[in-house]
Amino acid sequence: MATIATDVWRTSDRFPGVSEAAWDLTRRLSCRPTVRVAAPGPDGSATNRYTDTASIRGEAPDTPWALYLTDMNKAFRYVVFDLDASKGNPERDSKRLTAWLTAFSIGYTVCLSSPAGGRHVWVATAEPIAANLVAAIGVLASQLLHSVDTAPLSNRLTGCVRPPGAPHRNGGHSIPVTSLEPLLSPSTVTAQLEAFRDHLIDLGAALPESTTSTPRGVTVDDHGHPHLIGDRRPVTTKVRKLIDEPSDEQDLSRVMAVVLSGCARARWRYADVHELLAHSPALEHARTSRGANMRLDRSVRQQEKALQNAWRYAVQFVATNLPAGDSFDATFDARAAAVSDAVEAAQRAADASPGLWSTNRSRRQILDAVSAYILQSVSSEVEADTRRLSQDTGYGREACRLALLWLTQNNWLVLTTPAAGVHGATFRLGDRFSTDPSSTEWAQAVTRPAVPPDERRKIQLRKIVNRLELSNHDAFASPGSLGRDAGTIFAALGSESSATTLDLLAHISLTIKRLRAALTRLSEQGLVVTTDTGWQRTNGTARERVAVEFGVAGYLEGRRHRYDIERQVWAWWQAEYEWMKSEHRKPGRRPPPTSVLLVSVGRPPSNEYPRGPNNRADHREAKRVVLGKAANTGPLQLRQAS
Predict the structure, then answer these.
(1) In CA terms, which of 57, 225, 251, 610 is 20 to 30 Å from 98?
(2) Mapping DSSP to helix (H, G, I), strand (E, B) and coil, where does residue 419 land?
């Protein structure tokens, strides 16, 4: 695409240099509903303080404006190198920078940004980019290119740059001198920017030592290299294989990152990984850098620098992303033992009373789901709303509500906090099962089991989750399907072990007539088979065929989708309600209901809530808007324990 002719940026009456074409381009590029606008000075002239904002839906501002580089989730969608003439030579730095970007197939657009000769080099991304990666690139680039201003790249909240065509306070405007196509059709991804960051390090740049506090659980050795506190232990089989054997993975930087993270998690020190530098295939990225057609050897100093930087990143990442059970929380094992004891007691009592569940199986399913939440969170109290329970058990929300009511009335569960706003009610297991968190039994519980507390918790969680997932299917939970009795039997049977009819009668508490009828239906559909020792479950994929044959495929997914929409509408209304109560609300400053930026995943919309002619909330219209614009993010699933 050719550069846009300068006469397209025609002057308006509002501000010298303002162009309708430039404002239209800004609207197209903006990933937020507003842009930042230069505040006027005492004499009415534009300043370099971008403290005001303007909606992209309105007319062009009367003063220069700047485009946010991050989206509503504060992830970068543009990486812009601001080459300031007051700090260096923008023209020379622009040529060096674009040559590096070309080598990594990173598309860019260069703009002559100011009358003094400054440059803006724009890189548009095809996916959200983490702020820490962008900030690191800015710091590294500024060491090699003195004209780089790191401010826009180091602020994910308000970092902004004047887009192509935007006027300058001293006259003129930002003129694109290369094609706008890379800006209009983003293609750059995280892997390319990570490789570019590593290239800047190869060229001699270095990240400064962190000025923030050391992450919890991290210390440094005698040479200042960080590591996680604890005794060294063996790395996982996967990491050991990568250390010892060449990998088919083409991205060598990713291989090194995986290995260093695994070593950091295993409490290795920098000296331990340094011993691998000379020979391990996993550290090839530290030994060599990528050239045009081949990898080039690094000097010894460059190898050391590359490994040190990568190790610091790995330790920082692992320390802030430790999985459950591998934390620095001294109470974790005690809490894991306590919740395991409580869930085990509840499950043992439920198994001993099969007749309680025979007439209303939703009650046992809801008890199992709440038990799974407790094990997942390693907390005695958990939030459990009826829509979440519906998604995880296959029962409707009304059935879930009635089951929760029965379980609390019969002391299987205790309601600790009623539902409020967007938050569901919180529950814990009944007093006869739960361990008081303030009791000394929390500490004593760790010494009781022969199996480590967290491993016991994971075993319990897998068992409950698998049982829930086996019966939570259209083939058993939909109207006109095989039915809940069949689903309960299917989940009770093993795929490699068998159970007799008498075993099933004792475990499920059905009449012999109902049990045989359900087994016959399951057998006819190929879901169970008989063996020399009893009944056995077949491959679960047969459920999909059964659902299609019975005409119920997609029933649960449709209900999950409806519940997701209801949840989003409710969260939207709660956000609106909070806004109405706010003392600092400003009418007219929020996006309208049908704005394209309506829904942010995981958060309620910030747009105005739909209103009817009488200015009353229009919930039906809100649901229609959400249905039309919100992408379905899928049901909330119970996760398998790792």
Answers:
(1) 251
(2) coil
